[in-house]
Structure formats: structure tokens, C-alpha cells
Write a structure and sequence with these properties.
The complex is a heterodimer.
Chain A (H helix, E strand, L loop, with lengths): L4 H21 L3 H26 L3 H31 L13
Helix pairs in contact in A: 1-2, 2-3
Chain B lengths: L3 H20 L3 H21 L3 H26 L12 H24 L13 H11 L1 H29 L1
Helix pairs in contact in B: 1-2, 2-3
Classes of the chains: A mainly alpha, B mainly alpha.
């Protein structure tokens, strides 16, 4: 038995679903950010798998852009979390309700 | 890529660490499980003939991003938190429905997919990647430079406000 691209699609889809469930189910803002990173990594793995399958290095170059955006997002997001923690003394997303009408 | 003795153990470790990250109550444990997941994805990159990306994955994700996560978790003292069971019922139902929709569409797509024939081995040397990056994608490259500049400016604004609040 050989591993075809379908197995990689299935694996990355499951990793993406686990990340999406983390965003939807957890209340801790830091863990929500980690789940977003998991989803980005699943997409990266699929890009590299297809680059290998199609013999085209452009998919690998796209992964660099995704990594750059992920790094910028994490830096700004964690700074926001620290700023929220300074005012609310909590990072539970249920507590962040200042805009609630 | 097509060796099942490499794929299945790695896939099991990747899925197990991702699920453990999702279910763990301690945020530090979640971060460490995510680190395991990033490491297995780096090994997948090596299997998929992308050794340079594997090294970048280790240094950027495992080295920089996860250290930032662990630093913020320990700075805020936010290790303990309610797990998945602390969520509301409607949230749980909607999450499970959305996950089911993705799995269903995955199965539907996989049953109809005709897999393309494997092409030639991709030239994934840093030199070839740099040629593609700086010739074909030079404008997106500069846009990411602007993005990083905006991120740095935003961090300065946020940290300045923090200092003012504290004083």
C-alpha cells in the first residue's frame, strides 16, 4: 500500500477541524490563538504535499508567506491579549463584553 | 511521501498532539503539545522533499512563536482554565455541526477525486526557492515587508498604552 495525496488531504483536514473546534470550543484567548496556528500549519502541510505531488516549487514559496503572516499575527495578537489582561484581569473571552449592548 | 511506515506513525502523533492540545486544561501543556505537532509537521516536510522548509518550521514556529506563547502564558499566569466542558451547550452543538460538515465535504471530495500522476521531483533547494521568491513573487514579498512594518508599529502603540496605564 502506498500513501497517495488523498491521505494527506484527510490528515490536514482533520488537523484543520481540530483547530476549528479549538477556536469554537475553548474560552481561553491564548488557546484560541494556538488553534489558529494549528489551522495555518495544516494548510501549510497541504501546500507542501501538493507541491511535491505536482513537482512545482511555487507551493513551497507560498508557505513562506503564510509563515510571515502567522508570525505578525501572533505578535500583534499576544500584545492585544496582554493589553486586555491589564484592564480586565482575565483572558476568558466570555469576560470581554464591553461592546455588548 | 508514499511510505506508509513513515506516514501512519507521524499522522497518529500529529492528530494525538492536536487533540491533546484541544482537551488539555493547562495552557502550558497545550503549548507543549502544539510544539510536538509542529515538530511532526517538520518531519512531514522532510518526507515531502522540503528540507529547507522543515528547518524554517523548526526555527520560526518551534523557536520563535512557541517561545512567545509560553512567555505570555507565564507572564499572565493564565495556566489553569476551564476545559472544553466549560463551554456553553449551543457553542458545543454548533462546533460539532460545523466539524461534521467539513468531514462530510472531505469524504464527498475524496470519493470523486482522480489523483493526478506524480510529477518530477521538485527542486526545493534554497537557491531555487529564492529565485522563485525574488523573481515571480517579488511584489507579494514587498507587501509582507509592509505587513511586518505595520505589526511593529502596532506593537509600539500597544506597549506604549500599557506603560501609560500602569503609571
Amino acid at each position: 500500500m502506498t500513501i497517495t495525496i488523498e491521505w494527506y488531504i484527510a490528515l490536514t483536514a482533520f488537523l484543520f477541524i481540530i483547530g476549528a473546534l479549538g477556536v469554537l470550543l475553548r474560552r481561553n484567548a491564548i488557546i484560541i490563538f494556538m488553534s489558529v496556528e494549528l489551522m495555518l500549519n495544516a494548510a501549510n502541510l497541504l501546500l507542501v504535499a501538493f507541491a511535491h505531488q505536482l513537482g512545482d516549487a511555487h507551493g513551497q514559496v507560498l508557505v513562506f508567506f503564510v509563515m510571515t503572516v502567522a508570525a505578525a499575527e501572533v505578535a500583534v495578537g499576544l500584545a492585544l491579549i496582554v493589553a486586555i489582561f491589564q484592564t480586565k484581569k482575565s483572558i476568558d473571552i466570555g469576560q470581554i463584553n464591553l461592546l455588548k449592548g | 511521501m508514499d511510505n506508509p511506515f513513515l506516514f501512519f506513525p507521524l499522522a497518529i502523533v500529529a492528530l494525538w498532539s492536536a487533540i491533546s492540545m484541544l482537551l488539555s486544561r493547562n495552557a502550558v501543556h497545550s503549548a507543549l503539545y502544539l510544539l510536538v505537532n509542529f515538530a511532526t509537521i517538520a518531519v512531514f516536510y522532510i518526507i515531502l522533499n522540503a528540507p529547507f522548509l522543515a528547518m524554517v518550521q523548526i526555527t520560526v514556529y518551534a523557536g520563535a512563536i512557541m517561545v512567545l506563547f509560553l512567555f505570555v502564558i507565564m507572564l499572565l499566569g493564565a495556566e489553569e482554565s476551564a476545559g472544553v466542558l466549560g463551554t456553553r451547550r449551543g457553542q458545543m452543538i454548533s462546533a460539532l455541526v460545523l466539524g461534521g460538515v467539513i468531514i462530510g465535504s472531505l469524504i464527498a471530495a475524496l470519493t470523486r477525486l482522480g489523483s493526478p500522476a506524480a510529477a518530477l521531483l521538485v527542486d526545493s533547494s534554497p537557491r531555487n526557492l529564492a529565485v522563485i521568491l525574488f523573481e515571480t513573487y517579488v511584489f507579494p514579498f514587498e507587501v509582507t515587508g509592509v505587513l511586518l512594518l505595520v505589526a511593529v508599529v502596532g506593537l509600539f502603540v500597544l506597549s506604549k498604552r500599557l506603560v501609560k496605564n500602569r503609571g
